[in-house]
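writing this on my phone so excuse typos. first protein, seq and then structure
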Amino acid sequence: MWRWRRFSKMIDPNQPDLLGYLAGALEPDERHAVEQALGQDPSLRNELRRVRRQLEEIQNADFGCTDLDDPQHIPDPISADFETAEWDSPSPGLADRTLQFIAQQRDLIESAESPRVELASGPSWRGRASRRSVARRSNGAREPLASGAAAWRFVDFAVALSVCLALATLVLPMVNASLSKARITACANNQREIGVALTQYSEHQNGFFPRVAESGTLAAGGIYAPTLLGAGYVTDPRVFVCPASAIADDPSLRIPTLAELEAATPDEMVQLRRQMGGSYGYALGYRESGVYRPTRNLYRDSFALVADMPSEDCASSPNHAGNGHNVLLEDGQVVFLKSCRLIGSTDDIFTNDEGKAAAGCHINDAVVVRSDVSP
């Protein structure tokens, strides 16, 4: 059991030990902590269901697992009380039986490959002891031992492959989840660096962030990136690229300079406007009494300034496979959202109060738009 729990913790030490929970390898207090987390996090309950389904491979090997397909094994997330709910206990000793199964297969292989010799003392012995006895009985002539290549037959590969496939079924999704979290973290770090640059810019521009012009060739949300690069507030253009976005692996991607934008032909400008913001969107200004005004730094903790580039329908961002988006707030915080609204706010960060991807309807109406969108 200790080896099973150690393996489970090596997968992702920061997450509840779902594998250990299903394997019955947790102490009572650890098991209670996992059930509390399941009661509070719907996504964790979905992950538990997924892991249980993947354990079917092991169940089919007659390890005594419970029915993993029965949704009644998991309490209803709406009606169940996870503090008092009765959970189906994982089959006792699942981890130990798994290791025992592997050991039994190894013993069967050794039995098939090694000669058996009855000794005068009674019991029969396998493996190296038998081969040494045969060597002594043949007048000192030592029989050559089977090579490693000869000892591996089809049954060996079948057993090894089944074990590897079972482990891969459990481990690979968790590895992918870890990579996804790492990319979300790297993306958040990019936005924090952008936030520092925007704050520094505003401090030298009477409190105003880079202005998105209302009309003209440079009237596009992505203008903030060339502005920060041109003024020296950001020195690495890759800061404007989310590592989880579709353009992250494009070696030809580059943030154009203001001079290149001004000298571009109309056809070139169409492409430059799409890529000059990298993979992040930027907040437009707002209209007051019909007059368009740029965004001013008021250090608000509920005003979205930069976010993962919104989708065409402004429903989410494609950067993280539609699972959510990082958002840089005006006060420098970065939060990860799974919806288009900040917690405790009714303001949609990708559209204004009229439901349009355009300038805000008032000073507190934040609208983060795609790189090529004008006010």
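second protein below, same order as before
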Amino acid sequence: MSAVCVIPARGGSKRIPRKNVKLFAGQPMIAHSIRAAREAEVFRRIIVSTDDDEIADVARQHGAEVPFMRPLAIATDFAGTDAVNVHAMTWLAEQGEAASEFCCIYATAPFLQAAYIGEGLKLLRLNEATSAISVTTFSANIFRALNIDERGRAVMFWPENFAKRSQDFATAYHDAAQFYWFDTAKYLAHPRMFTADAVPVVIPRHLVQDIDTPEDWEAAERMFAALWCRGITPQACN
């Protein structure tokens, strides 16, 4: 296995304090991402990039490595994921362990499934692409989106779409915020999370919940409970 997993997990979350190690479904949040990465069986190393000692300890307890502590310069509120990826890939190359492909998995993806990680690597290689990213469909028709104007009135962004049928619109997708596969050499030449030739890995909407705010967290808990009540755990969902 030549691929490497990188899980960015900064300690300074503001909107949900300590969210990367906060318990979700009985486990620290980051443990779910580590579990999916391990179950995918495509990585020779699963590396957590963090600036936080507690996160590092939790990551190790659940089967990931923390071979370095993230430099403070790329652990600020304004540091992007690309800087974290470049640092990790550069560090590996300096150790003589350069990876041909790597997957950036977010630490707050409790519904992530190993099968989709594997599919992403397969699609990356099959299409000889720079990246393969997780996406899902919007729950509402974005082409009929509304805006609240300066008068406090609801107005359509595109009024010309009002009379069109739903089936006349193209299906719209958004970033599922779960994982991003990259061809390392191509990525390092132009480091950016979204590349011009990105291949989509479509994730069912019921397995996607971005977690940035307390409301997002509550929504994810309700999703987990709904699956659990049906006798399905996120680890077994397809």
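Strands lie at 3-8, 23-24, 27-28, 43-49, 101-105, 131-137, 146-148, 154-156, 173-183, 199-202. thats all i got for now
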